[in-house]
Amino acid sequence: MDAMWPTGAAYINGRFMPVGEASIPVTEWGYRRSDVTYDVVSVWDGAFFRLDQHLKRFRASMEYFRLVPRESDSDIRTMLHELVRRTGLREAYVAMDCLRGSAPTNLRRHPVNARPYLLAYAVPYVWLVPQEIREQGMHLIVASNPRIPEECVNPRAKNFHWADMTRAMFEAEDKGAHNPVLLDFAGNVTEGPGFNVFAVTDGKVATPDRGILEGITRGAVIELCEKLGLPCEVRTVPLEELRGADEIFISSTAGGVIGVTRLDGRILSNDRPGPVTAKLGESYWRFRKEGWCNEAIDYDPAIAAE
Amino acid sequence: MDAMWPTGAAYINGRFMPVGEASIPVTEWGYRRSDVTYDVVSVWDGAFFRLDQHLKRFRASMEYFRLVPRESDSDIRTMLHELVRRTGLREAYVAMDCLRGSAPTNLRRHPVNARPYLLAYAVPYVWLVPQEIREQGMHLIVASNPRIPEECVNPRAKNFHWADMTRAMFEAEDKGAHNPVLLDFAGNVTEGPGFNVFAVTDGKVATPDRGILEGITRGAVIELCEKLGLPCEVRTVPLEELRGADEIFISSTAGGVIGVTRLDGRILSNDRPGPVTAKLGESYWRFRKEGWCNEAIDYDPAIAAE
After folding, report:
1. B103-150 confidence digits (pLDDT tens)
2. From CA A40, how far away is CA A54, in angstroms rounded?
3. Does residue B92 lie in a domain region?
4. pLDDT tens digits for A191-238?
5. For residue A306, what pLDDT is reported?
6. Structural contact between residues B194 and B169, judged by C-beta atoms closer than 8 angstroms
């Protein structure tokens, strides 16, 4: 059967709708206090990638922020399948948010008086950067402003506190680069807007262990390193190590593995994604094609009436 | 004539509507990256309080975040008057936001490719805490988690990065208190969710100068101290000073001056708002009643058709 909403479908607190109709009240704390957590899973070739892991992380994020909706993980899984089915998309970007809601006006304006609820949507797959940049390599800068420390906002609980990221994105733009990487207050590498960072030195891969979102694609890359016999260390990565690396690459649900060819203008590996990066990138997509950690979407059943 | 929308009116990018119809797309970066700045001005007895200052601060916040909408300050002023007129409210809480928007799907997902726009709404006046707490005094705790440092997100540019505040609000609730006050990483007082903090020691008032939103009501209190001949220092306020204070009070657009009678369970000034607090609170409302820094709303003109 035909897809109902090929440009995107959304779900809000029990109801399905075209993504263009999905909106949130301007008075809602999910927006006004950014009191919300989220996750994003990709669909490729008609299958979710590592949906279990995304659902597990999403649940942990919700619990961390005390944002517990009425839906169980099993409800969420069923809903996400249904969302993608309604778009008919074989490649999709699927976001799920849990918002605080807001307190009824007769109660104290405290989050404890609000009722959290779920929102989700599926749209055509989103790439972190366009194809040209993925092929030729991304140009990064080291941002002037540090990442929000984890003592203030836990980055492992995925959140929309992006003002530090956004500011750094403008700085990158001003300097003619594509994206920033942010440091912590000690000068160690954390992450960039929507991606984790890896440094390759003398054939060894390293990626930060703290102050970051533990990306699902990052986890996949760490596993791939093991499969390919590449040493990979998860630990503090000082800026100097990044500056001196033979190769740098990033990982993201919105693009997999993407090579970085410039850092603050310095050219890496002849201005082309390096050999370790290329190997990991190829393996990533090959394994995914082979069905690695996939969960197929059943596009066949007639869509249930609402 | 009768008010059109007594429960609240909203404006989004050129259009007026009842507040219940005002919403933002779930895919919009104002929500998804909390890429938005805002301000809130109060209307009391049919007049805006310090609207000039709010507009000036709002403009500065917008420029800081590179969120520049098409409306001039004069356009915003006219729009806010119109908003309140449409509600007919004599006491109102008036919020104005500038959101990033989002990049068209054919362009790179960078904020530079989005078109910022304005949203505003006027609803019945909102109190930070209910009357009982305002009269008897607020119970504060010192939050375990620090405030997001200004090196990461500038607190003078008003923003919705409240996860640190929200977490601390839950901690306050867990401990049977009403609200938290957050420290910076050096252990100095910053602010609480929606308010600035003042300590009174030996008849002298002190309030933090850094790591805070420079509240308009905070500014009014500093001026009031001068009018009343109370010494007031704007400087670093260490936690020890707050703990040892004779009186503590907070200032907020949503309530003016509110006394604090407990800090981490310790009782201040016999569990009642202290004399300096009471004097400032009374003066605040008396001056406002007398029209201090007011800008009256003209409720008479027929509302122009859209």
Report:
1. 988 888 999 999 999 999 999 999 999 999 999 999 999 999 999 999
2. 7
3. yes
4. 999 999 999 999 999 999 999 999 999 999 999 999 999 999 999 999
5. 38
6. no
Cα separation, A123 vs A114, whole angstroms: 29
The answer to whether residues B201 and B280 belong to one domain is yes
Collapsing DSSP to helix, strand or coil, A145 comes out as coil
Contact between B34 and A163 (Cβ < 8 Å): yes
By 3-state DSSP, what share of chain A in percent is helix, strand and coil, each rounded to 5? 30, 30, 40
A24 chain-B contacts, CB cut-off 8 A: 23-24, 26, 31
Phi, psi of A140, deg, nearest 5: -110, 155
Q: A233-254 pLDDT, tens per residue?
A: 999 999 999 999 999 999 999 9
The nearest CA of chain B is from the CA of A231 a distance in Å of 33
pLDDT band at A301; cut points 50, 70, 90: low
**Same domain, yes or no, for A94 and A185?**
no
Whether residue A141 has pLDDT greater than 80: yes
Pairs of residues, one from chain A and one from chain B, whose beta carbons lie less than 8 Å apart: 152
Find the domain containing B101 and state its range. Answer: 9-126
Going by C-alpha positions, the residue among A29, A34, A27, A36 that lies closest to residue A113 is A29
Distance of CA B104 to the CA centre of its chain: 33
Residue A137 has pLDDT above 50, yes or no: yes
Q: Which pLDDT does position A3 carry in this prediction?
A: 79
Domain count, chain B: 2
Q: Give the model's pLDDT for residue B23.
A: 97
Helical residues (DSSP H) of B154-210, grouped into ranges: 163-174
Give me the sign of the Cα torsion angle B60, B65, B66, B71. Answer: negative
Question: Which of A10, A108, A129 lies at the smallest CB-CB distance from B108?
Answer: A129
**Residue B163 with chain A: CB contacts under 8 Å:** 34-35, 65, 152-153, 159, 161
Q: Which two tokens stand for residue B7?
A: 């429960």
Tally: H helices and E strands in chain B = 8, 17
Cα separation, B169 vs A174, whole angstroms: 38
Q: B120 to chain A: nearest residue by CA?
A: A26
- Does residue A300 form part of some domain? no
Any domain includes A1: no
CATH number where B42 lies: 3.30.470.10
- List Cα–Cα distances, B265 to A281, B32, B268, in angstroms: 56, 38, 9
Distances (CA, A) of B163 to A150, B99, B148, B299: 11, 19, 9, 39
DSSP state of A105: T
What distance in Å separates the CA atoms of residue A17 and residue A8, rounded to the nearest whole number?
9
Rounded to the nearest 10°, the torsion over CA A166, B38, A121, B170 is: 100
Q: Considering just the CA atoms, what is the radius of gyration of chain B in Å?
A: 20
Mean pLDDT of chain B: 95
On whether both B108 and B226 belong to a single domain, the answer is no
What is the three-class DSSP state of A37?
strand
Query: For residue B121, how many C-alpha atoms fall within 13 Å in the half-sphere facing its CB?
Result: 24
Lookup result for tokens 């619990």: A63
